[in-house]
Sequence to fold (464 residues):
Amino acid sequence: MATLRSGRKIDANGNEKLSEKVTEDDNSKDKPVKDKTTLVIFLGLLIDLLAFTLILPLFPALISHYREKDDSGLFKMLEDKVDVFRIMVGAPTQFNNVLFGGFLGSLFSFLQFLASPVIGGLSDRFGRKPLMIVTTIGISVSYLLWVFSSNFAIFVFARIIGGISKGNVSLSTAIVTDVSTPATRGKGMALIGVAFSLGFLFGPMIGAAFSMWGKTQAGEWYMYPAVFALILSIVDVIYLSVFLKESLPPSRRNSSTSATLSQACNYLQPLQLFRFASLTNLERKQHKDLQQIGLAYFIYLFLYSGMEFTLTFLTHIRFDFTPMQQGRMFLFVGIVMAVLQGGFVRRIPQGKEKKAAMGGLLLIVPSFAIVGSCQTIPQLYLGLGLYAISTAFVVPCLTTLVSQYGEHHQKGIVTGVFRSLGALGRAVGPIFGSFLYWSLGPELSYALGGIGLLVPYFILRSIK
Fold:
């Protein structure tokens, strides 16, 4: 027997040993095929998030604009409702704009909660790419309406269209799941996390520049950031149409249109979402574990988004932060998250995702305690640093965990339901967080929020 430089083994007669060749062929089948789809999704999602997040710093200026120039009557009606809530929780009048912006954010998240499982389920039947293009076009339509939003009713309608179309995020997760192996899936989910971090890093900076410029302009100044967002979304539609490949071949799709539509409509009921009710082919233990992960994700984002929303109140009252200083604060958080997700989270070994998520949940407890009780800016940034580290790990790791459940033709509905539970948490979290903050004060409310985040930790720990 001799071994050649290529690694092949031959016997004395010059024949290649068959068993070694078969093993080599089998091993080659296990090697993941290099696919650029994940990179295409990353860039497409980044373009989308830059357009989506640039409006965030504009909310105070937009609310002031429509307070003076709304002929539909909708602004006055909603402002009265927000004022009732402000009085109920005991917030000062100066935070009316913040609470109003929170209401619009909650509306957007609630619409995502409704749309994500439906869009995910339809993609299991008709393919990922067609639904991705449709949702991205819907987002473009919402920005087009924003361009022409001469009154508040049109602006709200634009936000409604945008919220319904935001199922593209869950579709991105499903596509990464389609084209990755269990060993490489964590890297793909971390890359989605990096897109979010970069989007929320640079998008608000663009929006802040428009906000400062808009203060010096008269008339319909909001058209300019709206046109910029529209251009980005059109670029995204063209980019995905040209470069995105279909990741779910017909042989792996759900074969029944009626069953798909019935399943999607079924998920409009919140309790069915928490149960992942349509996944009847899972083993009982797997189904229960999936429900537990979904519940942990909801509780996490419910408490997390509530405390995140009230950071604006805390930093303004305690440190007299201006909007620009608050922007720098979130810039710091975004940079830390992007570095960690790009450098560390994507390298988490397969099977270690749950442990990493649990570590992140433990880390956020002292983070909230420090932020709630801080008396100096260095203390604030210490708490925010721990907060950013925790956030960088928890969501990508939970997303990787949940993507392991279901068959190929069910990945869309699984990821759609998962994102929908998160959107529901983000819709109601700011209301609960504001109520706690103004009722109990920052120290106690942040401490309770941190302790509450031990609940998803113990839920994950119970999963064997």
